[in-house]
Structures are given as C-alpha cells and as structure tokens.
Amino acid sequence: MGGGNWAPVEPDDLPDGLVVADARGRVVAFNRAAERITGRSARHAIGVELERALPLEDLDGRRWWRLTDPYGGLAVRTGQPERNLLLDGREVLVCARYVRERPGGPVRQVVVTLRGTEARRRTERSHAELIATVAHELRSPLTSVKGFTATLLAKWERFNDGQKRVMLETVDADADRVVRLIAELLDISRIDAGRLEIRKQRIDLAAAVHRHVAGKVAAGTPAERFDIKVAGPPVEQWGDPDKIDQVLANLLENAVRHGEGTVTIEVGPAEELVEVPGTPPRVVEGTAVTVSDQGAGIPEEAMPRVFTRFWRGSRRGGTGLGLYIVKGIVEAHGGVIRISRAEGGGARFRFVLPAGVPDFML
C-alpha cells in the first residue's frame, strides 16, 4: 500500500445522520447531520435512552423500537434494512446495525444511520426524468428503423438499388443513434457510482485536437471555422484516449453546431485552482484545452447548470447528457472543467488534465 497521511473520518464530517447507542441502550454519539435531520440537539440526546432520543414510528403509527427490539430480539439478527419511518410526523430513512460481542452474543452497540427523504425524492425525480428522456430519444430512431425494415421486407422488389441503399443508410444511422444513447446511459451509471474506468496511457492533446478538427473538416465543416493555437512545450500527459476523444468530440460539436463564427481551440500548459465546498483548495498542474466560439453564448444565470443532467439551454433535441458526461470524465482523470464567456461573446469551455505519470507506474 502507498504511504501518505491518513486520518479517520470524524462522525461530524459524514453527510448522513449517525446515532450510536451503547449496550445499555443509551445514546453515546449523535452527529451534526443527525441534529439537522431530526431537529434535535446532541446535547439533549447524549445519555438518553435510544427510544426517547429517536421516538421513531412506522407508517402505521407503531413504535419502531418496540417492534424491532434490538437488545432483546433474536440473537442472530444483525440489524434492520433502510426503510421509511416517521419522526415527529416527518418521514426519514432509517437503517440500523447491531454490533455484537460475538456472533449470537449480546448487542454491544446499535448504530443508526438517518437520511432525509428529500434527497431520495430528488433521485427518484431524476431517474423518472432520465427514463422519460431516454424513451423519447429512443422512439424516433426505433420508429424509423422499424418503418424502413418493414417496408423493405414487404416491398423489396418494388425498389431499385439506389432507393434500397438510402433506406438502409438511414437504418444504419438511426441504429448508431441508439448505440450512442446506450453508451451515454452506461457512462452516466458509472459516473454516478464512481466507477468510471479510466485506462491511462500517454496522450498528445495537441495531436488529438488536430485529428478531431480534421475529422470535422472532412465531414463538411469549412476549415476556416477553426483556429488551433498550441502554446509552450508539451508536458508528459497521461489519460484515457477514448474518453478524452469523447470530451473533445462533445465540446467541438457543441461549438460548431450551437456557436457561430470562428471556433478557437487552445492547448498549452496550465495551473488551475480548484475549490470544492467541504474540501481544501488544490492546484491542478497539467495541460489545458480551451474551446471558444463567437456565438450568443450562454446566459450568466444558466452557467451553473451547464454540467448538470438534462441541461439543454434554449436548444431543441438531444438528451442534455453530454456535458454532464464530459465533466464526469474530466474529474475522473483528476482534472477540472469550467465554462465562461469568450472574448467574442460566445461560450468558452476550458478543461485541465493533471500532468505526470499514473499511479500504477509510481
């Protein structure tokens, strides 16, 4: 294992409520999150019987501690799964774990975790919106695929080769749309679970930018729309080339499709201060890539929402998941991405990837 300073997490640093009762059933720990969720102070809860400190009831109004009987119930029980309970008439999510001296022995501690239901409701709303968005986005290409394949199967002889080719090319393009949407869903699932897999190897960000711009030009975008600027000597940069390609493709596509005028891409060494609430500020040193356009840009009040799920601004179509995935990929690399207004009034996206070798080579 690697070295470094390690400090245990303090109960007050936890986002969930934590309440611990001793072998006598009296509360010995009551963290800040528990105070916030329950509306009760630790000062009045410490030393009090668990049933009095947390007078929980099930949704039928029955006293929960008497139903579950953690200290006098079956000796094989290890706890209670998370469930909705009532505390002073408000719903909270409660989970309990029984700590025993030995398997089947007496309970030494009861550890209770608490969560407010608002977070769960937000998650449920987000999931419902995701399902609705995916269903809407899938309907159009699948309807097209079904329509063209059914037509070809029923009337194959009536069409000439050129007509058949057009229909099959449309089916192929719509199938690609479905594949991309499924890939986006898988990325979101991994990002949300903190399991986005990054396979690092040496990458040349300047070369990647040139390659993506060449692809855009080959696809029909005028070459004069792009201005690539590479500054300073290249630094040793490691990253997942496929994932970085995904980031560059998304940012360039947004700039070309929704922006106007010249799309400027700048690549060069950078230092970026990262300030995340609840964590110490840190500086990311590495390579920065900036993509700017000269369009109308994004309103200042909308900028904090740009990297959230389903943000589309005033644009029509699309899932609104691309920039959420971009942010997840950059942060999985240990980097940072920001949005601001470009000098020409358009949108300016800038991401910084940390330099140096990956952990497996240290």
Automatic annotation (TrEMBL):
Major subcellular site: membrane
Enzyme class: transferase
Pfam families: HATPase_c (PF02518), HisKA (PF00512), PAS (PF00989)
Compartment(s): Cell membrane
PROSITE patterns: HIS_KIN, PAS
A Gene Ontology BP annotation from the UniProt entry: regulation of DNA-templated transcription
GO MF annotations in UniProt: phosphorelay sensor kinase activity
Gene Ontology CC, one term: plasma membrane
Enzyme Commission number(s) from the entry: 2.7.13.3
Gene3D superfamilies assigned: 1.10.287.130, Histidine kinase-like ATPase, C-terminal domain, PAS domain
InterPro entries membership: HATPase_C_sf (IPR036890), HATPase_dom (IPR003594), His_kinase_dom (IPR005467), HisK_dim/P_dom (IPR003661), HisK_dim/P_sf (IPR036097), PAS (IPR000014), PAS-like_dom_sf (IPR035965), PAS_fold (IPR013767)
Reactions catalysed: ATP + protein L-histidine = ADP + protein N-phospho-L-histidine
Annotated ranges, domain PAS: 12-47
Start and end residues of each Histidine kinase domain: 133-357
UniProt xrefs under PANTHER family: HISTIDINE KINASE 1, TWO-COMPONENT HISTIDINE KINASE
NCBIfam families: sensory_box
Name the record gives this protein: histidine kinase
